[in-house]
Amino acid sequence: MRAQTLPANAGWQWIVGGFAIYRRNPILLSMLVLAYWFTVLFLNVLPVIGAVASSLLIPGLSVGLMQASRNLERGQPISIQTLYGGLRENTKTLIALGALYLVLTLAVLGISALTDGGELVSFMLSSKTADRETIESGNFALPALVVMLLMTPVMMAYWFAPVLAAWHKLTVGRALFFSLVACWINWRPFLSYGIALLLVAGIIPGLVLGILLALFPGAQSFITALITMPMLLAVAPVIFASFYVSYRDIFGISEIV
Known about the structure:
Structural class: mainly alpha
Number of domains: 1
Largest sheet: none
Number of strands: 0
Distance between the termini: 12 Å
Oligomer: single chain
Strand content: under 5%
Shape: globular
Order of helices and strands: HHHHHHHHHHHH
């Protein structure tokens, strides 16, 4: 198993590559992303057990979206079976990855609770939106920083782990190790990738929405819905496809088994 070290501008190319894949079948890829979201949301409706079940299934579902992206790039058909087909690839390992990710996330939140008495965790579980007073108080600054610092290596270890487990049949430990190393040696392209994601999924849509709301202040709800839904249906599939492109460029499609 070998990961290549790529130049910094590769991160921007992952977004471009994701868009190229999305253009091959935008409607169907968007539908698969919606099916992914609805599956996770449906499971989370169930108290406790639903959150656990969704955590266990997310690695397999993410592999399904990666498979859909690979099929589109190769000119092969995709369907709803492609999304759920990822659950059949090295199933036990994928479920173990989901369970371990859930445990690590809870552990990180538990550590953050030591810095603020659990206020951030309670706020997250309450499903409330942060008001201006809450943001300006700075009460969540330290625990949020702790969560960010501790979750970064966890996310690095999990970035490629599901697809490495599914397509390369690696064990949990080896999948996490190779994913962590691949992200570490490619921190420059991942930094540019993060900036590109911020622009594509945050700044640019926000500017467009802000301009339209300034021009038509009386149609706030309509404009928000008009802009938000197409953005989600277009930007989200591009981002998911870019995950596959990052894997393809770093590990090489010749290594897929």
